[in-house]
Amino acid sequence: MGKFDEVFKQSIDNPQEFWAEAAKAITWYKEPEQVLDDSNAPFYKWFAGGKMNTCYNAVDRHVENGRADQTAIIYDSPVTNTIQKITYKELQTRVATFAGGLASLGVAKGDTVVIYMPMIPEAAVAMLACARLGAVHSVVFGGFAPHELAIRIDHAQPKVLITASGAVEGKKTLEYKPLVDSAIEQSTHEVEKVILFQRDIVKSDMIEGRDVDWTDLVNSSEPVGCVEVDATDPLYILYTSGTTGMPKGVLRDNGGHAVALYWTMKNLYDINPGEVWWSASDVGWVVGHSYIVYAPLLQGSTTVFYEGKPIGTPDAGAFWRVISEHKVKTLFTAPTAFRAIKKEDPNGEFIKKYDISCFKVLFLAGERTDPDTLHWAEDMIGVPVIDHWWQTETGWAIVGNCMGIEPLPVKEGSPTKAMPGYDVQVVDDECVEVPAGTEGNIVVKLPLPPGTLTTLWRNEERYVKSYMTKFPGYYETSDGGYIDEDGYVYVMGRMDDVINIAGHRLSTGAMEEIISNHPDVAECAVFGADDQLKGQLPVGFFVVKAGVTRDGNEIKDELVKMVRESIGPIACFRDACQVPRLPKTRSGKILRGTMRSIANNKDYKMPSTIDDPTILDEITATLTDMGYVKK
Ligand code: COA
Ligand code: AMP
Prior knowledge:
The chain is an alpha/beta fold. The protein folds into 2 domains: about 5-310 and about 390-465, 3-Layer(aba) Sandwich (Rossmann fold), CATH 3.40.50; about 505-625, GMP Synthetase, Chain A, domain 3, CATH 3.30.300. Helix content is about 30%, strand content about 25%. It is globular, with a radius of gyration of 24 Å. About 55% of the residues are buried. Bound molecules: coenzyme A and adenosine monophosphate. The site of adenosine monophosphate has 18 residues, from strand 27.
């Protein structure tokens, strides 16, 4: 048995021993009484009885243990021409003082705080300050429109909202404050205070009595220490797309999260304390939570905070410049970023301009790494390119290739093997395991390892229903795929109405809910069509109400505007078409999966329950006219 298989076996045979060992890397105020409390399954509690603080583990202990002058965060912002290095000592001062400011506004253990910020170090300071106080943060990605922010405000019910005046998105400067004001106006929950970080790129107006200037607050506050919390207390809520317009509030605990993330830095990513790590994502996504902020800081490595794009800021050499300038050992990003670079610089001319000899491994996630991108990246950069599969719910990789234990051969199209802690299986709809090579539902036998979701915030029922009901005893990933004879997992895509646009998870159901609100629309369907750059893009079909005679294109433009204004530009909803009717089953269920197969030029089985098969011919003709179906 290879080294990796041995470690994996230990983690599955003796999970409690395995994670108890990993937990030694964390500083506990009080050791856990129980490694795993499974008395109320499927609500598992890792490290019950343990007392600790995530911010202490990510910041203060490094200052106490000889890393005070080591760089914790490198802020690299080509869009504002800024490079800033923040040591662990400076980070401690900033976080402790900002936490003092939050406390002076009444934020205490258990309170919720919404953070809506661009990729600036103040976002990490805000997150860590919440953790310091035992407050629960909920970061909302800046590409979401006010309506989406309002939904999250109403559900998370924050005492305080922290934002910045704006962001630079490629070449555009966007003002965030009016979006925040509009979201607060749309929400029914009353946010007591808004803390505003004024950036040089754009200044925003303040609302008297409600808004507090970040700098003023910090200047008038005293640093505060770390509050002792239970390992099982919540650290953050991160909303992610489900199949409806109401996102799921994934809840993460403190102890399990710290243990698991620390463990992955060396074992999965082969990063040691003090080395430079770069996750080119955004703090608004799970990758940003886990691998821009928490994991590298918990380990005492250096994390790059990059405010820019892979291309256009200023060119397709941006990633190579950052790697070479900051001596990055490992980069983690989404395949779409590499497809964008490949499109602009197919022969890798920009790579030749930089010394990237420090660069050792490229990790990709967020969507499947297609073979073209895999091989192009391997050829151009000459380092291992490692796909790994995970979800907001799990917070870290479910399937991967542990570079710090034993690098396994890469097979194209597969993120490699189940990670230690995850007993991954593929089952049919009756929950029977299928033979190797057969596609089915990818599930994980319970309990999930530490660091994964503990429940959905204020919605235990949805947690049980969404993840734990269809396949009793297993976590339902909602991804389909298969496992080959060597144990390599192949993830083929979502089985539900969630799509992946440029590595961002969005709900077609949420888009349908918005489109249905148009006064002329009787019914609609949105599904994902394959896209060469972004992986998938949404396509909408709509049927108008009887008597509506307006031009379909005019309605389409209105629908595009509605989705952009409600969900945000990040939904990339640009293509829709009026159709006379939608294909359905006899019981009235719209056949979205069949339309998706047609749009993506994939073979499909005629559903036996289809009401009228001739509609599929109409749909095929429309998708041909729209340019999706290749003749
Ligand atoms: N705040 C406000 N708006 C944002 C935003 C933010 N933080 N992020 C994106 N947007 C906007 C963009 O400006 C764009 O708006 P537009 O329609 O007005 O042009 C829209 O949302 C779509 O953005 P994006 O999908 O990023 O497309 P792009 O064409 O600007 O860039 C890529 C394409 C491939 C370069 C880009 O998607 C990318 O870098 N992807 C990497 C993804 C990633 O890191 N994923 C994290 C998971 S690991
Ligand atoms: P998110 O919750 O935003 O991280 O999105 C999770 C979803 O992205 C998964 O359920 C998958 O459908 C998809 N995904 C993420 N990483 C991969 C990968 N490496 N291979 C295939 N799909 C992936």
